[in-house]
Amino acid sequence: MEYLSNKKFPINSKDYKLYEEVGEGVSATVYRALCIPFNEIVAVKVMDLERCNDNLDGIRHEVQTMSLIDHPNVLRAHCSFSVGSCLWIVMPYMASGSCLHIMKSSYPEGFEQAVIATLLREVLKALVYLHSNGHIHRDVKAGNILVDSKGAIKLADFGVSACMFDAGDRQRSRNTFVGTPCWFLLGPYHCHFLFIRILSIG
Ligand SMILES: Nc1ncnc2c1ncn2[C@@H]1O[C@H](COP(=O)(O)OP(=O)(O)OP(=O)(O)O)[C@@H](O)[C@H]1O
């Protein structure tokens, strides 16, 4: 089981070698990279803070959440630091990519039921952990369920997550619609169908 370790990842960009791009989101580009002192492959999410100027609070929240979480089914950050106008978030590398990517490349008809059941169990364990610690993910989708080289499943991307104990603006933000259009139109009572749809159609 992988829980918080005392391993201190370096917070200097010179200690990392960026390889190819492995993903691109609305706010960031993700690279496979080498952490040179540990000789360990990691993923580095590079966020251009100038491009996300109006959402610095959200980014701070994402980084804080990713550094504090400690559960085998939730993707955590090893460390984060700024490089010029960018923020680098160093994470474990999830070699098999997202469920969306796996479906698009190998299962265009969607996963088999047994695979869906396994993915569901792992994602639900992540959600139980997050909810019991006061976090709401708010963007559960196939592109945010990542798989590593050994088949371990982790929920990623806390860009629009919220905290149940937040006050002020962030508290109000819990009552707004965020995430990915099409998913948020479904309410919590449709959760079951939502998961089946996430994993069987994409
Ligand atoms: N640790 C990782 N290992 C391997 N690939 C990753 C990792 N983190 C992210 N990716 C890839 O990069 C893509 C984009 O990452 P992420 O969702 O964190 O960016 P984003 O800008 O917040 O995305 P969104 O558009 O969903 O808000 C993911 O869908 C995935 O394919």
Automatic annotation (TrEMBL):
<dbReference type="InterPro" id="IPR047173">
    <property type="entry name" value="STRAD_A/B-like"/>
</dbReference>
<dbReference type="InterPro" id="IPR011009">
    <property type="entry name" value="Kinase-like_dom_sf"/>
</dbReference>
<keyword id="KW-0547">Nucleotide-binding</keyword>
<keyword id="KW-0067">ATP-binding</keyword>
<dbReference type="InterPro" id="IPR000719">
    <property type="entry name" value="Prot_kinase_dom"/>
</dbReference>
<dbReference type="InterPro" id="IPR017441">
    <property type="entry name" value="Protein_kinase_ATP_BS"/>
</dbReference>
<feature type="binding site">
    <location>
        <position position="45"/>
    </location>
    <ligand>
        <name>ATP</name>
    </ligand>
</feature>
<feature type="domain" description="Protein kinase">
    <location>
        <begin position="16"/>
        <end position="202"/>
    </location>
</feature>
<protein>
    <recommendedName>
        <fullName>Protein kinase domain-containing protein</fullName>
    </recommendedName>
</protein>
<comment type="similarity">
    <text>Belongs to the protein kinase superfamily. STE Ser/Thr protein kinase family. STE20 subfamily.</text>
</comment>
<dbReference type="Pfam" id="PF00069">
    <property type="entry name" value="Pkinase"/>
</dbReference>
